[in-house]
């Protein structure tokens, strides 16, 4: 089995796609008006319309309901990304912070309220974990 993607269900595909394109610098592949993928070298973030929920199974998912999953993005410089996200991100949960496990981290919410973390390893151990 191979992990393929993380999918967000939303009522507004266009807004979420535009947000993640700005945050990642990656142009999304629009496979359908109801579905897009932001593809990076290490993973794919899929964005699907809430109109697709009946295809998954009645009440299988709910947009804007996540309060437990965090999307993590590895970046070269958290502080530089923080500066570029001013005016793009409405809700920052914290400012760049050094975490005890060796990462410098910035946590914010996307337009649907999902948590997004950008991080940079700042210790040798953290750098080795990311490299493997």
Commentary on this structure:
The protein has 132 residues and is of the alpha+beta class. 24% of the residues lie in helices and 33% in strands. The chain has two domains: 54 residues, 2-Layer Sandwich (Signal recognition particle alu RNA binding heterodimer, srp9/1), CATH 3.30.720; 66 residues, 2,3-Dihydroxybiphenyl 1,2-Dioxygenase, domain 1 (Roll). The chain is globular and about 45 Å long. The relative contact order is 0.18. The model has no long low-confidence stretch (mean pLDDT 96).
Keywords:
132 residues, alpha+beta, Signal recognition particle alu RNA binding heterodimer, srp9/1, 2,3-Dihydroxybiphenyl 1,2-Dioxygenase, domain 1, 2 domains, 5-stranded mixed sheet, 4-stranded mixed sheet, 24% helix
């Amino acid at each position: 089995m191979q992990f393929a993607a993380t999918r967000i269900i939303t009522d507004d595909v266009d807004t979420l796609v535009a947000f993640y394109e700005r945050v990642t610098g990656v142009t999304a592949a629009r496979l359908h008006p109801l579905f897009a993928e932001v593809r990076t070298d290490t993973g794919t973030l899929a964005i699907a319309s809430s109109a697709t929920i009946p295809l998954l199974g009645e009440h299988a998912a709910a947009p804007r309901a996540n309060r437990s999953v965090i999307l993590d993005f590895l970046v070269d410089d958290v502080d530089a990304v923080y500066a570029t996200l001013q005016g793009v991100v409405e809700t920052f949960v914290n400012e760049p912070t050094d975490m005890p496990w060796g990462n410098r981290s910035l946590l914010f919410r996307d337009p649907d309220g999902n948590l997004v973390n950008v991080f940079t390893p700042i210790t040798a151990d953290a750098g080795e974990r990311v490299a493997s």
